[in-house]
């Protein structure tokens, strides 16, 4: 609950501040984690499992208003680029994973999602607001960090992904 209060407060602060000094920055390797799947019981996944793909790593929670808008649009993007070496990977930060599962079912989200009720990946990536996303290249290097979300952000997100996919060809 304390982390939830902090995240709500920090989301408001991100309107005024950029990423904190401890957040992973472009050019740094993404922190490799092992987390349980939010939707497939007993399945564990690591960030390194997706090496060779461009990864849009999205930290979200069921109580996050902007996440309600971003997840369906990211799911559409994931489906549109299904034939490319690209994946949207969500990390749910709800204290109770069932809240995240219900949220995904309600919105009809299909891209892979992991559960991090402890917040360890949140801490390691230096997330300071919700949602926060990291665009990671095929070698596992963070290329771009995006904090917050409005529907118009897709006009920036998709070209960055497309550019990384072209670089890998």
Automatic annotation (TrEMBL):
Instruction: Read off the InterPro entries from this record.
Output: Redoxin (IPR013740), Thioredoxin-like_sf (IPR036249), Thioredoxin_domain (IPR013766), Thioredoxin_ResA/DsbE_sf (IPR050553)
Q: Which Gene3D superfamilies match?
A: Glutaredoxin (3.40.30.10)
Q: Which UniProt keywords apply?
A: Signal
Secretion signal, residue range per the UniProt entry: 1-23
The keyword Signal is assigned to this record = yes
Q: Domain Thioredoxin, which positions?
A: 24-166
Enumerate the PANTHER family for this protein: PROTEIN DIPZ, THIOL:DISULFIDE INTERCHANGE PROTEIN DSBE
Per its record, how is this protein called by name? TlpA disulfide reductase family protein
Q: Which organism is it from?
A: Oceanobacter antarcticus
């Amino acid at each position: 609950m304390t982390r939830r209060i902090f995240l709500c407060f920090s989301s408001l602060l991100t309107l005024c501040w950029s990423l904190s000094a401890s957040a992973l920055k472009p050019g740094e390797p993404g922190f490799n984690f092992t987390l349980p799947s939010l939707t497939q019981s007993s399945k564990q996944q690591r960030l390194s499992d997706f090496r060779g793909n461009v990864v849009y790593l999205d930290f979200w929670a069921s109580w996050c208003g902007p996440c309600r808008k971003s997840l369906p649009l990211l799911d559409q993007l994931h489906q549109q680029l299904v034939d490319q070496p690209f994946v949207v990977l969500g990390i749910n930060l709800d204290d109770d994973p069932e809240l995240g599962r219900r949220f995904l079912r309600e919105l009809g989200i299909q891209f892979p999602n992991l559960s991090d009720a402890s917040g360890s990946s949140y801490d390691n990536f230096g997330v300071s607001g919700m949602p926060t996303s990291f665009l990671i290249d095929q070698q596992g290097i963070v290329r771009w960090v995006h904090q917050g979300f409005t529907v118009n952000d897709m006009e920036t997100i998709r070209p960055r992904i497309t550019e990384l996919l072209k670089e890998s060809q």
